[in-house]
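BUG: 3D viewer hangs when loading the predicted structure for this chain

Environment: internal workstation, default settings.
Expected: structure renders.
Actual: progress bar stalls at 90%.

Input used:
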Amino acid sequence: MAHRPYFFSSDSVRLTLTNEEQSAAVEDVVKLLKQDRHVTNWNELFQAVIALSTPPLKIDQENAVAIYHVRTNSVQDLIMAAGRSISGIRFKESDQLVHLIIVIGIPHALNQEYLRVLGSLARSLKEPALFQQLLTTESADEFIDILSQHHE
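Structure tokens produced before the viewer hung:
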């Protein structure tokens, strides 16, 4: 088992997103961070994420992942949340259905960590085998473990 990232907990993973509308689904994922101890200004974080217009990352001809990432001083450390929709969510910016929504918040002071995590995550999620594992896992802990194996 890979070392679990300090910025990702099972409380911040929802494997059954039910909203099929883009903005509502993104809101559901960012709300997973509301009780995170590293959030110092919830409203500022929420508004920063919701204001983003992020084109999804294409996995293949049918599937995509949306990564919402903000640098903000409304968090004290790197935080991350994830939501999964098996049926997929139609995003305006994509011809593919979005099955995973990832939200990342990081303070401005951790710029190098931000770039490393975002780059590693984007590269990992483009791997079809990893993407399929994330779609079929049955627990939040397993979801995090799968991502962690590809994130070191």
